[in-house]
Amino acid sequence: MIRSWRSFLFVGALMVCLRSTVHAFTHPTTIEVIPVPRSIALPNGPGEGYQSALRIGDVLYLSPLRGTLLTTDVLVSGGSAAEAAQALANVQTIVQHAGCGLEDIIFIETHITNLTFLPQTQLALGTLFANAGAPRRYAGRVEVLPRLAGGALVEFAVQAKGCRWTTANGINRRERLVHEVISIPTSVAVVAANQPQLAVRINERLKLRSLRGLDLLTSVLVPGGIVAESAKVIANVQAILNQSGCGLSDVILYNVRVTNSSFLPIVLSAIRSAFTAERAAVKGVADYRTVSVLANGASVELVFEAANCDFDSSNRGHLPRSNDAEAELSILNNLLSSNIFRPPAPAVFSPQKSIRVNHILKLSQQRGSLSNGVLVSGGVAAEAAQMVANVRALLTEAGCQLNNVLSIVNRVTDLANQTVVDLAWTNAFVAEGARIRYVGQVQQSEVLYGGALVETVVKAADCDWNQT
């Protein structure tokens, strides 16, 4: 896109002003691919350029693991229950190989092809932790996807923190860590057996479980349709945030799932009303999706993440803030006229294009559209190329490069198009001379907003935050 020299000067001046107001984050960040030997698992197949396991600072990210035998990549027989048990055994194998334990897991994302598989996956999770004698200290969410790679029925994507990393001199050590399950009074909410925790604090961050428009005590869906559900789900989010010492102003990620794209403006209007009533600033990035089905027959689901809350406020009894827990939020907003995903009109809730929390940069989801929000023509190849260009533009604006990318989640309307999307990413990495040091996911979505064929959600780390 062509811009005038005045626009460049204006953007440059804003960037200098913004960065001058934020002190530099100086904690060292280790970016390390965790090598998995063939004796444990086969390497990723053709087209799967991402890594199986990646360490960013003190966080371990795993690409999704399915119910295959790791040494043969053959899917086990026996249906969803057998696949869930095998997939979680694979998770345990890779997590332990990386120097972690089940007690170090902080987030589990479950992908299933049919909602009826959910009880079996929850039972498998409960059995895994019970047999290992490990406490469940993780939040999580469930995605129902029409297809998974390799014909799988179940897969799990996992994050862990506080592992025993091995230093260069061979001494095992743990990163400084506050990993705390937020205690929610039973008068506020009840957590059923084998369910993820409602809220988990990891240093400066708070991860919430996926929430729907249910009564938090009875798990019964409120009547009244999408309007009532929208009001209830954001009220549930506020209740859990409040119990954790957080507010809406502390939210850095807004994951919104609806079963009909026409519901999204209604949900966003309810969120906007809550922010207005709380006089909260909109600091986070967004990820909006239309899905075929949600648990409990719900029409909307929210998965929020917060940072830099008042964890030490009186009467909450939480652990003290760790030395490196101060979140440094650099909101890169309105500085770049390249594409950001815009929800369907009316745009009642406007998230940020990108946000930095300490050494992690989160981008809102990106599609193959121009700065005016119109998709490029030419099919999935053209959309993928434009999408990657949009990501690179936002990364550059934030002081990052593709070499800093730690996670890429690609969504396509047809899994057959993933090879085209992979090629767009490969071309970009080769052109930039960047190493592939990220974990990845491929998800098939029946519908993407604006009629897109592909979209992506990207995270980066350890960028040149101090560039001018």
Structural summary, described in words:
The structure is a single chain. The chain is α+β, with helices and mostly antiparallel strands. Helices cover 25% and strands 25% of the residues. It contains seven helices and 25 strands. The strands form five sheets. Strands 1, 2, 3, 4, 7, 8 and 9 form a seven-stranded mixed sheet that branches.
Topology:
Elements: H1 5-20, E1 31-33, E2 53-56, E3 59-62, E4 65-66, E5 68-69, E6 74-75, H2 79-97, E7 105-112, H3 118-132, E8 139-144, E9 154-161, E10 164-166, E11 172-174, E12 179-181, E13 199-202, E14 205-208, E15 211-212, H4 225-243, E16 251-258, H5 264-278, E17 285-290, E18 300-307, E19 329-332, E20 354-357, E21 360-363, E22 366-367, H6 379-397, E23 405-412, H7 418-432, E24 439-444, E25 454-461
Parallel strand pairs: 7-8, 16-17, 23-24
Antiparallel strand pairs: 1-2, 2-3, 3-9, 4-9, 5-6, 7-9, 10-11, 12-13, 13-14, 14-18, 15-18, 16-18, 19-20, 20-21, 21-25, 22-25, 23-25
Helix pairs in contact: 2-3, 4-5, 6-7
